[in-house]
Amino acid sequence: MTVRFKKKRYERDCLRAKLASKKYQKLKRTRPAIEGTFSAMKRSQGLDRFKVTGLIKARCSSMFKAIG
After folding, report:
1. 19 — phi, psi (to 5°)?
2. Could you tell me if residue 2 is inside a domain?
3. How confident is the model at residue 38, as a pLDDT?
4. Which residue range is the domain that position 22 belongs to?
5. DSSP H helical ranges for 1-68
6. Cβ 66 vs Cβ 41: under 8 Å
7. C-alpha 38 chain-centroid distance
C-alpha cells in the first residue's frame, strides 16, 4: 500500500497543529488587549496621521506620544 499527499496539504496540517498548540492559544488571548490599546492610542493621540514625514521622524513622534 502507498499513501500519497501533496506538499500543500502537509504544510496546512503543520499549520493546524501549530495553531492548536497550547503555547499559541495562550499567545492568541493577549491579542485583543493589544489591539484595544492601539485603537485607544489612535483615537486619543492621533497616531493614524502624522504631521512629520520620514520613518525616523514618525517613529520618534509616536514614541513621544506614547510616553506622554
Report:
1. -70, -20
2. no
3. 82
4. 7-67
5. 7-19, 22-29, 31-45, 55-67
6. yes
7. 11
Query: What is the Rg, in whole angstroms, of the alpha carbon atoms belonging to the chain?
Result: 21
- Identify whether 48 is part of a domain: yes
Please give the chain's pLDDT, 68 residues, in tens.
Answer: 888 889 999 999 999 999 999 999 998 888 888 888 888 888 887 777 778 888 898 888 888 888 87
Does the residue 34 lie in any domain? yes
Q: In whole angstroms, what is the distance from residue 36 CA to residue 53 CA?
A: 26
67: part of which helix (H) or strand (E)? Answer: helix 55-67
Does a structural domain hold residue 1? no
Overall domain count for the chain? 1
Going from the C-alpha of 58 to that of each of 26, 44, 51, 66, the distances in angstroms are 32, 17, 8, 12
